[in-house]
Amino acid sequence: MGSVFFIFGFLRHTAPGWRVAGLIFCTAAGIAASDDPGGGVIQGATAYFEKLSAPRPARPAWAKDFSGRREEIRERLLRSIALDPLPERVVLDARFSAVLDHPWAKIRQVAYQLWPGVYSTALLYEPKNFSGRLPAILTPTGHYGQFDNAYVEVQEFCLNLARQGYLVLSTAQNHYEDLSMGISHQTVMVWTNMRALDLLDAMPNVDRERIGIAGASGGGLQTEMLVALDSRPRAASIVGFTCEFRTLLYPDPPHCDCNHFPGVLRDTDHPQISALRFPIPMQFVTMNDWTVDFRTKNFPSIKALYESAGTGDRVAVEYFPSSHAFERPKREAVYQWLARWLQPPGGTASVVEPETSTFSLERLLALRAEVETGMGFGGVSRHFEARWRYLPATIGNSKQLADFQNRLAKVLMRLAGNDAVLPVAPGARPVEFPPAEAGGCLVNRVLIPGEGGLVIPALELKRRTTGAPRRAVLYLSPDDKNELVSPVITQEIEELLAGDTLVLIPDFRGKGELEQTWLGRSDYQGKMWERNGIVWGRPIAAMAATDISSVIDHLLENRGIMRGQVSIVARKSGEAALVGLLAAAMDQRVAKADLDLRGACFQLRNLPPMPFILQHGDVLQIAALIAPRSLVLRGVPPEAGSSGWLQAAYQAAGARTKLDLPIN
């Protein structure tokens, strides 16, 4: 039976190194720069971070061809947040609470339907002493913990807008994420606010031609996204948000996970997103936070864009030398901007904010619009699964298998972001250290060149009594690699060291030295690779699989291992097993894999996130890419699907005996 081959473009880069002595396996924190002539693990990781987080596209050139690419960028943005196509606009089924009376406005909570059975809430401020069709302001809420749009700062803003004659809808900030189905926080937040615009459109006392939007911090992100993706707002103010993604990514000052949505930095960056609807009147309010450099680094390109269309007066930036807050002077600047574009000439309402009485948080939070049938945001996943979840392909012969493998291989390459893998510097070489002896084995520390300046620390083990190794086993483990060989070599590794086998224990992205060696706050290092990888379009497990491919390069080029003599073993962690599974699926040089998923699969959401994967398959479908090569797949949970499906794939490959699915 002929084999099916498909090629994944792994490209690689440089090899800095360390110096150690004997059996002392030093951590990055213990190495001085003078002992680390190649830059080392920390510097390699830092260089990689900077390359993948660089502004997209480079400033200021992006404005030159921007007009012709706006629709393309908008479509890609919608795809990245799983809103292409947009969901069905189900009936709003708006429900209203009792009225809370304020001298300037009547306040009610309103519940409205996003997806069937999935509701969001907002606070509606209806101005008193105004009649006819009113201008309206949508105010997405920032991060105020459990208080959200009941927070005093938000109340003051909304009440003063109502005092000026606006009908105000202050939406909740709904955090919900199910990345395996493609659902990010932005999926829910953007659709929440699009449906809020539907609600304003449906109100008979709202002038649809005078709808504005303004939000601060996380509400500023929602303002930016909604203006970019919905044509209904006529003016906008983004307060304390717009900046380059680089300033929002770990390990710099941490931001909420809602800032991380799949692959967005592959195509665009926040300053460009904010300009997608030019020449809409747009105000940027900046301060001494991550927006402090926006005036000088980003705004000139946006201003030039507006001026090129003869609308330079429609965009403005205001800087306040204060901290990240939405206090009165900033609110007054927003009132003035919105009044300029949404109020009739000669309006009498003052934009100067008077003393404003607000309600206690308890009283405002007590407003309840009753919904009897709401299923919560878990219902979003159920709706996505009903519409988008994969169905196992029918595989009854070699052609059906080949078609499936070729199709899934292309999808997996895209989901893994393999076209973004960075090259290795020409001539990069591993850095090796004098071997030490442990339990009759030679143990060698080696630093292997990885993509984009990364260094992959590893230990190599072989029997002292054997000659040059002919086979290699990559042992993937969540355990510290040094503890696996010191003070004694573990029994499992002893068993793998049979004959002329070289056992290599690598670290990889998110594990060992490549988890801990990073600049910035140590308590956020664990999130760095995972969350940044989402924005980069490089899921953490896919990045780790690229590391394993670099290790295989090293084995073939520097250890004389022949193609077809490399195996992968991962038995202690579902996460490590996923790395091995992806590496074997995407690299034909892996002859055999023995992987223990330990009850993990994407359907159970207990594996590292890989956005959109469940629209195409789960671990069994990925495993089918390994056929006809040998595979032992342990610990497969029933939620991953029928093991008979994978057996049928191997049968179609003429390799049924090369698949083993032990029952634990």
Structure description:
The chain has 664 residues and is α/β, with parallel strands linked by helices. It is built from 20 helices and 20 strands. It has two domains: 28-53 and 392-660, Rossmann fold (3-Layer(aba) Sandwich), CATH 3.40.50; 98-369, Alpha/Beta hydrolase fold, catalytic domain (Rossmann fold). Helix content is 32%, strand content 17%. Strands 1, 2, 3, 4, 5, 6, 7, 8, 9 and 10 form a ten-stranded mixed sheet that branches. Strands 11, 12, 13, 14, 15, 16, 17, 18, 19 and 20 form a ten-stranded mixed sheet that branches. Strand 12 (436-438) and strand 13 form a beta hairpin. Helix 17 packs across helix 18 (574-586).
Which descriptors apply to this entry?
alpha/beta; single chain; 20 helices; 2 domains; ten-stranded mixed β-sheet; disordered N terminus; Rossmann fold; 664 residues; 32% helix
Radius of gyration: 28 Å
Strand content: 15-25%
Task: Report helical residue fraction.
Answer: 25-40%
Q: Measure the end-to-end span.
A: 31 Å
- Count of separate DSSP helical elements: 20
CATH class group of the largest domain? Alpha Beta
- Strand runs, count: 20
> Could you name the CATH topology of the largest domain?
Rossmann fold
CATH homologous superfamily heading of the largest domain: Alpha/Beta hydrolase fold, catalytic domain
Q: Report the uncertain regions.
A: 1-39
Helix/strand/pairing category? alpha/beta
